[in-house]
Amino acid sequence: MNRLAQTALLFLLGATLLHAGTTDLYLRYVKEGLRPMVLLAGAVLIATAAATLWYDRRSPADDHHQHREPRVSWLLALPVLALILVAPPALGSYSAAHTGTALTKPFGFPALPAGDAPLRLAVADYAGRAVYDGGRSLHDRRLKITGFVTLDREGTPYLVRMGLNCCAADAQPVKIALTGAIPPVLRPDTWLEVTGTYTPRRMKDPVNGGPIPYLRVTTARPVPTPHDPYDETWNT
């Protein structure tokens, strides 16, 4: 590509990263803590584009027309435009149903706050305590957990959150199987806020044989997709 095309693509990509970093769009691709890096990368690309244009204008005129690149090279701009015009949704039930649970044993279990109100837990926090701590801190507690619905081939419903190490490319699910007062109709990818209690019942993930704890549901209601659909608590 000639320098004009290079400059245009660098500027477009940089502007796209700045747009993603100043909105919630970047959360579709990377974890929340990487926002400064996304913004920095966008600024560096725009600065590089400006420097390239400045250098090109200062170069002798004969250097500008040494090669004529095909116009088809401008099609390289289409993937960049797609980042703005066709932002992909966050990974959901299809990925969760075809990927085994990524639940791993935490280093420890911090004490939970006391009280009679329902205790809000992340999917990974409940699953870790239920599997690797025998549910000792969960007995006699009303719990409130939010996640999206996925179903396996047998129709077993799970409440799921996808966890990130870095970006959406390495996202893996942590799953909770549901029992009790389950809504009669469950659509995959529906986000639910579930209130329930611990049960020692467990099952093996049909994909990789990993442990999946059950939650006994008392109430469930649909909720909007959260600001950050990915769960970063399980690997922090």
From TrEMBL:
<feature type="domain" description="DUF1980">
    <location>
        <begin position="137"/>
        <end position="230"/>
    </location>
</feature>
<keyword id="KW-0472">Membrane</keyword>
<feature type="region of interest" description="Disordered">
    <location>
        <begin position="214"/>
        <end position="236"/>
    </location>
</feature>
<keyword id="KW-0812">Transmembrane</keyword>
<feature type="transmembrane region" description="Helical">
    <location>
        <begin position="75"/>
        <end position="97"/>
    </location>
</feature>
<dbReference type="InterPro" id="IPR048447">
    <property type="entry name" value="DUF1980_C"/>
</dbReference>
<feature type="transmembrane region" description="Helical">
    <location>
        <begin position="36"/>
        <end position="55"/>
    </location>
</feature>
<keyword id="KW-1133">Transmembrane helix</keyword>
<dbReference type="Pfam" id="PF21537">
    <property type="entry name" value="DUF1980_C"/>
</dbReference>
<dbReference type="InterPro" id="IPR015402">
    <property type="entry name" value="DUF1980"/>
</dbReference>
<protein>
    <submittedName>
        <fullName>TIGR03943 family putative permease subunit</fullName>
    </submittedName>
</protein>
